[in-house]
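queue> pop job 88
queue> type: inverse folding (structure -> sequence)
queue> payload:
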């Protein structure tokens, strides 16, 4: 696997995490609405990312990897 293939896969994983978070939120909202509201208030269904720009998350790491690759192309 090349570095570019790895980055593509990391981006795919991030999308899968978003989809899983949406699925989890939907199930919780339907079957456990009280717990859903609590989890939603804290961003519990946002897998791999955060509303806090100072947090290091999977999403920010993937973005940094992409930026690193762009810098190498120059």
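queue> result:
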């Amino acid at each position: 696997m090349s570095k570019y293939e790895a980055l593509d896969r990391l981006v795919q994983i991030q999308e899968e995490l978003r989809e899983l978070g949406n699925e989890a939120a939907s199930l919780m909202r339907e079957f456990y609405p009280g717990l859903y509201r609590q989890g939603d208030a804290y961003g519990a269904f946002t897998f791999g990312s955060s509303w806090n720009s100072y947090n290091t998350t999977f999403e920010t790491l993937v973005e940094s990897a992409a930026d690193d690759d762009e810098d190498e192309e120059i």
